[in-house]
Backbone:
């Protein structure tokens, strides 16, 4: 039997509908299959429960992986399918048991496939291997696929905003074309409207922070996607005060582009507009990152402090100066032990092995530059505190914000907070004010972030009370009430 014919027979035998487990089946592989060219029968051709098959008939009640004909491929937690051949388990960018790599192509090691180095017969066979439907292996997520509770698979963000506006009718109102949320009862002393926005999936940020004492409006995008510039433009026009409107923007390319376009349109209309860019994530503070630090947890603190200042009648340039100073003295870092669940597929955004953490994960599920073994909580929080403090200006007092990423309980968050306060005390830094809770989640990611804002002694000594007074000012929103 020709080698290609055997390959076709194997592929056809294991072709089943997605999500269905194949029934018992037998696949006969002739001995000549293992003796052609450089191929030998030294190791297993079919890996299933540790059994070896050399031209024998093997009953497969659950399909596994067919591999021709190197060592057995045993999926392990954290191994992902090779992006190049789509079959071989790999970890850390290097193929483990990859058939193409073992037969001399070396394309995995170079990081890019070079099909010209693969003989024609092997290309026809897909590299001597197929990935059959997997039923009971560790390659699948540790969490079962969970279908979200959405009224519509395409308009779930719109429906969520509709439900939110109905529930919080005394606080916000919803504009549907284009979509944005605005405060029902802003402080009449405000001269400047405050608007922020970004992708959905981070609730209560931003729509849940609209209300007296904080934002005047929020423009929500799709999940982890920037709002359209028309949303920002129309929302800004609706809430602009006599002295204009201030945009609070997280440092992501899409947000910067769309808020920038909206700002140009507002200036063309004669509406004063300015921007405060939040970039606090130390995980992306390097020369290798072209966009710089990402905007994460500090956004909540900026919106709270600027909201209080706006309620006191601050002018546009005063708010810009205050916001930029707060951002410059705020830094964050996040970790996660499980990825967020995709609202479309119901599967996790990435996989981690047992006992691993993504150190420096992003709030959109961006993988961190470092995957570490999970240390004790005291050691982990101490490292995070060090990383944040080392990127802050010198000082002796901070605002401390421990943020849940969506799948972390309050018991866990308060454990983190207690450890963070102790870690700061050993560095002679006091916590003047604090905030604990899932205010900037990443859907249901299992993890947390630590944000600190280093206070300025000269500012805090003013009769007005400085930033502490702004933090203590009353606010009434769906997600934050003081």
Residues:
């Amino acid at each position: 039997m020709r080698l290609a014919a055997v390959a076709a027979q194997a592929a056809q035998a294991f072709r089943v509908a997605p999500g269905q487990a194949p029934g018992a089946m037998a696949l006969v592989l002739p001995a000549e299959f293992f003796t052609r060219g450089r191929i030998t029968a030294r190791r297993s051709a079919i890996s299933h429960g540790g059994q070896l098959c050399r031209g024998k008939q093997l009953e497969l009640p659950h399909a596994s992986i067919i591999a021709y004909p190197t060592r057995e491929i045993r999926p392990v937690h954290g191994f992902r399918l090779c992006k190049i051949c789509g079959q071989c388990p790999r970890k850390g960018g290097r193929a483990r048991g990859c058939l193409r790599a073992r037969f001399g192509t070396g394309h995995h090691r170079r990081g890019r496939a070079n099909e010209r180095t693969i003989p024609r017969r092997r290309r026809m066979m897909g590299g001597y291997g197929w990935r059959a439907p997997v039923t009971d292996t560790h390659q699948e997520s540790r969490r079962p696929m969970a279908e979200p509770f959405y009224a519509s698979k395409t308009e779930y963000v719109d429906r969520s905003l509709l439900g939110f506006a109905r529930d919080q009718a005394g606080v916000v109102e919803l504009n549907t074309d284009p979509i944005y949320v605005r405060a029902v009862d802003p402080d009449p002393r405000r001269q400047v409207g405050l608007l922020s926005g970004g992708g959905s999936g981070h609730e209560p940020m931003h729509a849940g922070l609209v209300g007296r004492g904080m934002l005047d409006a929020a423009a929500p995008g799709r999940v982890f996607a920037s709002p359209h510039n028309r949303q920002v433009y129309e929302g800004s026009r609706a809430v602009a005060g006599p002295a204009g409107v201030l945009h609070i923007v997280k440092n992501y390319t899409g947000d910067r582009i769309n808020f920038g376009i909206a700002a140009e349109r507002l200036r063309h209309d004669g509406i004063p507009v300015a921007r405060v860019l939040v970039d606090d994530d130390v995980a992306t503070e390097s020369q290798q990152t072209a966009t710089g630090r990402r905007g994460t947890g500090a956004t909540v603190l900026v919106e709270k402090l600027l909201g209080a200042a706006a309620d006191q009648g601050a002018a546009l340039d005063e708010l810009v100066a205050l916001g930029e100073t707060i951002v410059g003295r705020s830094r964050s870092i996040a970790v996660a032990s499980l990825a967020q669940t995709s609202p479309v597929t119901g599967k996790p955004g990435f996989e981690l092995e047992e006992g691993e953490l993504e150190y420096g994960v992003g709030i959109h599920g961006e993988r961190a530059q470092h995957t570490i073994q999970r240390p004790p909580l005291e050691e982990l929080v101490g490292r995070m505190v060090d990383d944040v403090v080392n990127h802050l200006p010198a000082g002796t007092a901070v605002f401390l914000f421990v943020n849940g990423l969506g799948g972390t309980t309050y018991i866990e968050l308060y454990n983190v907070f207690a450890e963070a306060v102790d870690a700061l005390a050993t560095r002679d830094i006091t916590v003047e004010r604090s905030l604990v809770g899932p205010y900037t989640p990443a859907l249901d990611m299992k993890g947390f972030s630590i944000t600190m804002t280093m206070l300025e002694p000269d500012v805090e000594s003013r009769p007005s009370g400085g930033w502490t007074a702004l933090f203590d000012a009353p606010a009434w929103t769906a997600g934050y009430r003081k």
